[in-house]
Specification:
Elements (H helix, E strand, L loop, with lengths): L7 E5 L18 E6 L17 E7 L11 E2 L10 E2 L12 E14 L2 E7 L8 E7 L2 H4 L18 E4 L1 H9 L5 H10 L14 E7 L2 E8 L2 E9 L20
Parallel strand pairs: 9-12
Antiparallel strand pairs: 1-2, 1-8, 2-7, 3-6, 3-8, 4-5, 6-7, 10-11, 11-12
């Protein structure tokens, strides 16, 4: 039996699984901070890491229920119509919920005893525990003659993305400056389940990015962002008295 303790926790722009790119690098504007945990949060552990442009992150799929692995899965790249063996895919429903992502390392900061790796092009849910960090080595990790099975090329980004006036104004006022770019990069790759892409009637969706609720409508091949609002923090639960359900969680 192996037991692993995380070396760090990811603070990501993705607050829920829906909308996360299916692979790292598809949305360069997707940013995250990897905060190292004790006893690994010391300058010695990252000495020399600043010389690498990209990293491999080995992480745990903490958003997937334990024991939910499947011997075969339906890859989205195949339209959800073909089943392949779990080991021929990157599905999160695995015998051991371990993932691997190649992400860009933008910079490393040390502040008040905290070591933070600032990343971009991520496909990681907020709160993801990272088990290990390895430098990406171009001469060894990029193999020009490799074949990609059913995913030989990057997925097509065929959707057009437009914003309502209110949504565009919200993005323009966003302090980080790249919220609109991030939304465009995510929606162009169509985060919908494969079985919903053939529907012709307008469809309404939403996802949480940073501290915002982003809502859009699908109109054929157009993703129209209708509203972006700050996420509302629920009020604290009273210390005494019976608890009442406030909604259904999926």
């Amino acid at each position: 039996m192996f037991r692993f303790a995380p070396v760090g926790i990811v603070r990501s722009c993705f607050r829920e699984r829906f909308g996360i790119p299916r692979q790292a690098g598809l949305a360069p504007a997707a940013r995250a901070a990897l905060e190292l945990l004790p006893p690994y949060n010391q300058p010695a552990t990252v000495r020399g890491l600043e010389g690498f442009s990209h990293l491999w992150l080995v992480f745990a799929f903490h958003g997937v229920p334990a024991g939910r692995w499947r011997p075969t899965v339906r890859p989205p790249r195949l339209g959800g119509n073909r089943r392949l063996g779990v080991f021929a895919t990157r599905s999160p429903f695995r015998p051991n919920p371990i993932g691997l992502s190649a992400v860009a390392l933008d910079r490393i900061t040390t502040e008040q005893g905290r070591i933070t790796l600032h990343l971009s092009g991520v496909d990681l849910l907020d709160g993801t525990p990272v088990l290990d960090i390895k430098p990406y080595l171009p001469y060894a990790d990029s193999i020009p003659t490799a074949t990609g099975g059913f995913a030989t090329e990057a997925p097509m980004s065929g959707l057009t993305v437009e914003f309502s006036g209110a949504a565009a104004a919200f993005c323009a006022a966003w302090p980080c400056g790249d919220l609109r770019e991030l939304i465009v990069q995510l929606l162009r790759h169509d985060p919908r389940p494969a079985y919903e892409r053939s529907q012709t009637a307008p469809q309404h969706y939403g996802m949480k990015l940073h501290d915002c609720d982003v809502r859009w409508e699908m109109r054929g091949d157009l993703a129209y962002v209708t509203d972006i609002e700050p996420e509302i923090t629920p009020p604290p639960v009273p210390a005494a008295g019976p608890l009442r359900p406030v909604g259904k969680h999926e």
